Amino acid sequence: MKKQIEKIYSRPARPGMVGDGFRVFNYFPNGQITQQRVSPFLLMDFNAEYDFGPSDHLRGVDVHPHKGFETVTIAYKGSVAHHDSTGNSGVINPGDVQWMTAGARILHKEYHEKEFSKKGGPFEMIQLWVNLPAKNKLADPQYQAITAGQMGKVILADNSGSVNVIAGSFNEHKGPATTFTPVNMFDIRLNNGGNLVTTVPVTHNTVLLVVEGEVTVNGGQAGQHDLVLFKNEGEEISVSADKDSVLLLLSGEPINEPIAQYGPFVMNTQRELQEAFQEFQSGKFGVLE
């Protein structure tokens, strides 16, 4: 049975700036799509293709804390460097993914990579926040540097395109990311006229973002930068590309727990949020320069 479409959302009307290096359209949470509706996903910020121009100043986001969830950054165009308070650092190039578990606490900063910043050019990224269940909120911080070459790679039949499996399993091909709860994350590239059929569990909350192109999905028409929200009915997803297209398909088992969020902290109760602020203000998150 095909997974029914609940609604197709157009790109938000206006972008917002995260720091001075990320010009993003926020798809959720908002007044229409709540965090509970798309759990375990908490946030989707899409930096649609944009040329920031050459600069000697490293645009980005300065030191900031996180606690209680994971951040996932998917690079399509441009390069981002990052550092965190556990000593991890690196560069995310096109096709790469940075999967960071904030867990108990972490300080983090991310910015345009130096050589990319000097040259300028097209910049396109997605950042997702993925919730952690209560039992894992205080997990040790960790970092998964997933390069394009490490992805699970699926070549589709009839020159339809390919799928990079970041997490979960696409038609029995597994991705390299480890997750605390069941999550599927697929970077899909379809050629004009290409087709794809896959299934996700009926219970999963599921969305499809059209990063580039135009597709027909389960009978609905989705254009560039549209977000398709599926009902929790049926399992099959069928996509046909009406032009060369890049898609991000996300599905995950809902975490049916209370969500208490304020800024970069995501806990289960207001008391836990207050404790997180106290820890941060007292210096327990460490130091990052």
Order of helices and strands: EEEHEEEEEEEHEEEEEEEEEEEEEEEEH
Query: Major sheet, described briefly?
Result: 7 strands, antiparallel
Structural class: mainly beta
Count of strand segments: 26
Give a brief outline of the structure.
With 289 residues, the chain is mainly beta.
How would you describe this protein?
The protein has 289 residues and is mostly beta strands. Helix content is 8%, strand content 50%. The protein is built from three helices and 26 strands. It has helices spanning 35-38, 114-119, 270-281; strands at residues 5-9, 16-18, 22-28, 41-51, 60-66, 69-77, 80-84, 89-92, 97-101, 106-112, 122-131, 142-146, 152-155, 161-167, 169-170, 173-174, 183-190, 195-199, 205-212, 215-217, 220-222, 227-230, 236-241, 245-252, 260-262, 265-267. Strands 1-22-19-24-17-14-13 form a seven-stranded antiparallel beta sheet, with no helix packed on it. The chain is globular. The termini are far apart. The model has no long low-confidence stretch (mean pLDDT 97).
Describe the secondary structure blueprint for this structure.
Elements: E1 5-9, E2 16-18, E3 22-28, H1 35-38, E4 41-51, E5 60-66, E6 69-77, E7 80-84, E8 89-92, E9 97-101, E10 106-112, H2 114-119, E11 122-131, E12 142-146, E13 152-155, E14 161-167, E15 169-170, E16 173-174, E17 183-190, E18 195-199, E19 205-212, E20 215-217, E21 220-222, E22 227-230, E23 236-241, E24 245-252, E25 260-262, E26 265-267, H3 270-281
Antiparallel strand pairs: 1-22, 2-3, 3-4, 4-11, 5-10, 6-9, 6-11, 7-8, 7-10, 9-12, 13-14, 14-17, 15-16, 17-24, 18-23, 19-22, 19-24, 20-21, 20-23, 25-26
